[in-house]
Amino acid sequence: MSEMALFSCPAMDSLSREVIRIAQQRYSKAINAGKLLWSKFPDGWPNIAIENVGMCSNFQATFLAAMERPADVFEQLAVVYALPRYLVRSLQVIMPYFPVGTMERKVYGGEIVTAMTLSRMLSQIPLNRPGGPAKLVFFDIHALPEEFYLRDGVVVQLVSAMPLFQSELSKLDAPAIAFPDEGAMNRFGKMFNAYDLIVCGKKRNGNQRDVRIISGDPSKRHVCIIDDLVQTGGTLIECNKALRNAGARSVSAAVTHGVFPNESWKRIIEGEICFDNFWITDSCPTTAQAVIGKKPFEVISLSDVIVDLVVNDSMA
Fold first, then answer.
1. For 50-105, how does the pLDDT look when each residue is reduced to its tens digit (9 = 90+)?
2. Which of 147, 5, 18 is nearest to 83 (CA)?
3. Where residue 95 sits, what CATH number does that domain have?
4. Is residue 121 situated within a structural domain?
5. Do 44 and 32 share a domain, yes or no?
6. Percentages helix, strand, coil for the chain, rounded to the nearest 5?
7. CA–CA separation, 308 vs 72, rounded Å?
8. CA of 295: how far to CAs of 32, 236, 266, 274, in Å?
9. Least CB-packed of 11, 153, 285, 311 within 10 Å?
10. CB 281 within 8 A of CB 161
11. pTM exceeds 0.90 for this model
């Protein structure tokens, strides 16, 4: 078995350290910290170097990515393109949040499908010698067909953070599970078949969302809304209203990716419609850091799952 090395972009450094700590504690296995010197030239272009580049040779390398902003894409691709050239034995790129997941199809002529564009770029990661193609890992990618936008030059693994929410749900008093639309129900419903399920539906009217309950009864229940991502929070707020109007005693939410651009998470804290709990993961580290300690938010770390991904990949 080759030694393991874990590299990360600056936004994922904290999560990377936690993964290394848990691996040593749980498996008594050492994951070596790959050290990247990460800065910028005066003109703004990235100035990056692998400080301990000698450790790359014959290591099982994992890169923990967070492409939250368009500028992050270029510099992180530069790293993952470079690692195979330093003779890593294999390369795994864990990108918890696929940032263009909602831009996966054309609605009108001339619209550009940027999910396809980023997939092409990721598909160009060089092959490793002798490990073959890089493996890309995504948590709860927004549209499952996007897996097939990535070409044969890489291997794709889709995983879910939903099991991490199960322990939180077990603390609630006989909760019911609600989905904001039928798509979320079809995707995640089987993971929560031990609970009573409620399905909502939404209709967009410009910037407005009209949400109604399609099936299930939230009356006198603590209801938890489940979804893969939240942007401005508008849909979940309207779903909360519909559930409370139908008699729900209280409403929580559990969402893998708390994107919340432009600090729109403040709508959840300051709005008239309250959530008893709002669980997100640290897949979007900037948002996760911003909401720590702010009720009703609670951040559930992906570190436990990532440890298993790193260690199991080294055993393959």
1. 998 887 888 999 999 999 888 899 999 999 999 999 999 999 999 999 999 888 88
2. 5
3. 3.40.50.2020
4. yes
5. yes
6. 35, 30, 35
7. 26
8. 36, 16, 11, 10
9. 153
10. yes
11. yes
